[in-house]
Amino acid sequence: MQFIDQAEIEVEAGKGGDGIVAFRREKYVPAGGPSGGNGGKGGSVLLRAVENLQTLLDFRYNHRFKAENGGRGGPNNRTGANGKDLIIEVPCGTVVYDAQTGELIGDLVEPEQTLTIAKGGKGGLGNQHFLSNRNRAPEYALPGLPGEIKQLRLELKLLAEVGIIGLPNAGKSTLISALSAARPKIADYPFTTLVPNLGVVRKPSGDGTVFADIPGLIEGASQGAGLGHDFLRHIERTRVLLHLIDATSDDVIADYNTIQQELQAYGRGLSERPQVLALNKIDAVDRESVDLEALATTLNHLSHAQVFLISAVTGTGLELMLQELWSILDQLDAKDEQLVNSQ
Question: Please, which residues bridge with residue 104 across strands?
Answer without folding.
Answer: 97
